């Protein structure tokens, strides 16, 4: 069972809230939870920024294998210590899937080390091309999918070169964007996915749903580490082994 | 002319100071400056942590193309705002070459996003293998070089996969280490190089000197950016071009 | 069910045959098959070079999801057309796991494009370090494992930079080697793993067995492609979509 | 001085020849030579497919630091042994810059190991975005440049993940393409650049000229290797060093 938490920045202006509700009557994060949970191997919990500890007390993170993070504008409302805690959890093994405007979420910026700035414009038609069909996150996908309306994010996108660039978005207005990017960080895996503006229909798109489900499986932890410490020993590893003493792990 | 600044953490215990002076009578950063300056294209300035603004006021950074950073233990003595300023300069184009224990320097951790923890032990014999001879930083180097005594740094080294892994170190005691690693971050280039303990002779080694000189040339800025801002426009790039209006740059 | 084929170059000198039988009484490829098949999701077939079509007629390849390839010296006995066929199958989605001396197997050289030459020496003690514990192939592994006796392969190893470098080997005699390397090629995935000399015990090592089982799962196809053709259309993708006509896939 | 050779497939149908001459009165490869030679550090020679040894006898390759390769349709007219020789030269250190339709040139396919197939269509408007402004090949370039008419090449482009993806092309018809890609292969460096159809004006574009000049500098050899051999020794490197005996190089 993969335990997924969907974190949602829910502090919009009332007018926006209404528009989101019109597009996602179930609620945006609840919509994501619903399609992920069609996979019996996945269990989803939704948390929101206005909850205690920003929705992410230790007991929630302790039970999270993969964290999806949807945010749009309240970046600075997330305390630094929450961001640091989330980033450290990723380094210790938790999967992390920042969605759409979460390209600028504090935990992602901590993990990538770049400014994560980009070019943007309001709604445009997007065509998402798969440039790495061998990747597990692209399983079952056609070579391109259409998103009739999506917020435009364009290059230059200030990110480290992705370890794996899976999708690139084409926008009718003339831009393109590295829209589906994988990075390995510490014991954890990170997948950023660009589509998903709150008033557009991306999360109703069955291909987008497939991508995010694939990503949850890809990002599920395969290793864990308890501490982010230095390891020191007076003896070399070879000598330790000769003496039958254990080699410090991670 | 490439303007290089060598930053040095000079706040050692007096006993260590004496040992460093015995190995590097000229001073450790001055030794680095001296061999770099044999290249007439390179001009070097040495700054130290105990100077105002941690040795890095804006007027120094404004005149720095490539920053070498040597530190060993006073990581936390560098104020967060200095570390942030250095990292931002890299994102805007400045080259950055953290040396030896600077694997844990604040600016590098900000740029890499991982814990940068590792395994370590006191002096051992190291053999440095070149695993990417096509790289400009390896120009003129043999396939391996010997460092009769060097502090042992071993895996697992918690770094993002290097964009280019140029050197890997073998230690007689049984360990290995990704010792020469390149990353691109924003407009800037980063090269981490492991040898260089303050009481060992690495910086007297002509091959190490060649590597660092090569690295300075590789990391010299080829692009600059003034601001780390988002770019927004109401019109698509294609429409802007049709109207003969400029496309916002970086 | 993942359908695995283990290909084996079985045309050794009788003296070597006897030494292999002493180490692997079941047979070397049969030993690999036996530990992989402990996973109920994996079905294994063994084929050998002396069989018709080099052991790889179409009907075998048609039923192969992941191909393990063990060879040591008879590289040139594999006809070019068999090597090409295997490489094309990988580009169409088949997983490929060349073992030990298969670093020089024709299909791998076709897929990597480099000379795949290296430095080598007879048996030495090897310590295999994990440099990417987040990788699925490293799941369940300690940070390093011991191989008391293994043929030494050392750098410079002329391969493209691995997409993911998972393991690096340390040899007591002074060398190191990129021993566990992943590449994506077309629709397929490739994992090269260095330990596995025919007269040494690597395939009896439970950690090596775990690595290869993990690799089979990682390399199992997630996408397939029937032809390696160019795609051409008179109309742009956007216009095709407007007309409701299908976009050519792969 | 960087010694550049521009290889040109000149066996077009007479009608095409006339169209090329109309666009490039000087000749297509001569046009490339002319703008490269404005750099006093660069000397250029033009060779063509109809010359003896396919234009590439050993004495030409011996004097070539960087080889640009322009071809469009006569892929199979290049003998396998010429393609092999060129690829081996790259592995030994020669820079290689395949242009436009040379994505399918035999030497490039040998070096990359994939099918290099793609999607294509006749002339469309292209906008070339820089996705890695820190790369030396992007020095002096704006974030995007316009190519009013260029043959459309689109994804999926079956190449290995580039070591560095510098440019991505946007086509008005709905496609995008990894248009400027770097790979390291052996001792050599490879840069593929997509624009450059024989009847379109790409090589008159000053930005394209800058890109190719930058690429020549980037691809110029920084290391050489004479042979693509295995290296063997009876003694470990550590023991060799103790005895003061040389370690075999490449």
Can you walk me through this structure?
The structure is a homotetramer of 250-residue chains. Chain A has 250 residues and is an alpha/beta fold. Chain A has one domain: Class I glutamine amidotransferase (GATase) domain (Rossmann fold), CATH 3.40.50. Chain A has 7 helices and 10 strands. The longest helix of chain A is centred in the C-terminal third of the chain and has 14 residues. Chain A is globular, with a radius of gyration of 19 Å. The two termini of chain A are 25 Å apart. Chains A and B meet through helix 4, helix 5, strand 5, strand 8 and strand 10 of A and helix 4, helix 5, strand 5, strand 8 and strand 10 of B.
Fraction in helix of chain A: 25-40%
CATH topology of chain A: Rossmann fold
According to CATH, the homologous superfamily of chain A is Class I glutamine amidotransferase (GATase) domain
Greatest interface and its participating residue counts: A-B, 48 and 48 residues
Number of helices of chain A: 7
Shape of chain A: globular
CATH class of chain A: Alpha Beta
Residue windows where pLDDT falls under 50 for at least 5 positions of chain A? none
Strand order of the largest sheet of chain A: 2-1-3-4-9-8-7-5-6
List the helices and strands of chain A in order: EHHEHEHEHEEEEEHEH
Separation of the first and last Cα atoms of chain A = 25 Å
Mean pLDDT of chain A: 96
What is the gyration radius of chain A calculated from CA atoms? 19 Å
Which architecture of chain A does the CATH hierarchy give at level 2? 3-Layer(aba) Sandwich
Write down the domain tally of chain A.
1
Please give the oligomerization state of what you see.
Answer: homotetramer
């Amino acid at each position: 069972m993969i335990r997924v938490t969907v974190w949602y920045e829910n502090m919009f202006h009332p007018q926006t809230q209404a528009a989101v509700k019109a597009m996602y009557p179930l609620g945006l994060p609840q919509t994501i939870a619903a399609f992920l949970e069609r996979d019996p191997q996945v269990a989803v919990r939704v948390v929101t920024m206005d909850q205690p500890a920003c929705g992410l007390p230790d007991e929630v993170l302790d039970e999270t294998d993969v964290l999806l993070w949807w945010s749009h504008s309240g970046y600075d409302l997330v305390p630094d210590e929450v961001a640091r805690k989330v980033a450290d959890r990723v380094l210790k093994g938790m999967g992390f899937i920042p969605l759409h405007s979460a390209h600028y979420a504090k935990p992602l910026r901590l993990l990538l080390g770049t400014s994560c700035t980009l070019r943007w414009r309001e709604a445009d038609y997007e065509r998402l091309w798969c440039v790495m069909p061998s990747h597990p996150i692209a399983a079952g996908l056609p070579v391109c999918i259409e998103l009739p309306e999506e917020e435009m994010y364009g290059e230059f996108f200030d990110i480290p070169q992705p370890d794996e660039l899976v999708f690139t978005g084409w926008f009718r207005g003339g831009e393109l964007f590295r829209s589906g990017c994988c990075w390995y960080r510490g014991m954890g895996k990170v997948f950023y996915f660009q589509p998903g503006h709150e008033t557009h229909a991306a999360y109703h798109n069955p291909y987008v749903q497939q991508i995010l489900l694939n990503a949850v499986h890809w990002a599920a932890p395969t290793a864990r580490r308890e501490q982010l410490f230095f390891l020191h020993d007076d003896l070399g590893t070879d000598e330790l082994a000769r003496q039958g003493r254990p080699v410090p792990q991670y």
